[in-house]
């Protein structure tokens, strides 16, 4: 099944490439690797999904926020691939920053929202190395920010 068949089966429509909010570019390619800048959690209406895990945001809501980021990341990755996600050879690495209270320890479970969706969409090509960190704050108060590295053909 192609990536696009899988996205359709999951009823996912990828967003267009977002305009950066500061002094950076959405992605950089060097050789066959594409580095995607961090994407913050946004709700379906485009507003920032704000709050701290362990405070105002539950682990399950954080997981859903991370899943939403995965959709945004795939939209950016599609642009980096010249419009064809079937060029993705491998999702190499995901790094997740989780806006957390000092006692919150479930960053890995939050990040599963992104990792699981990448696995569903890309199959074995979506299996990746990963880091998940708890941080004191993220731009605009977002609950999660995730960046991604992929290898493309």
Automatic annotation (TrEMBL):
<feature type="domain" description="Endoribonuclease L-PSP/chorismate mutase-like">
    <location>
        <begin position="7"/>
        <end position="151"/>
    </location>
</feature>
<dbReference type="Pfam" id="PF14588">
    <property type="entry name" value="YjgF_endoribonc"/>
</dbReference>
<protein>
    <submittedName>
        <fullName>RidA family protein</fullName>
    </submittedName>
</protein>
<dbReference type="InterPro" id="IPR035959">
    <property type="entry name" value="RutC-like_sf"/>
</dbReference>
<dbReference type="InterPro" id="IPR013813">
    <property type="entry name" value="Endoribo_LPSP/chorism_mut-like"/>
</dbReference>
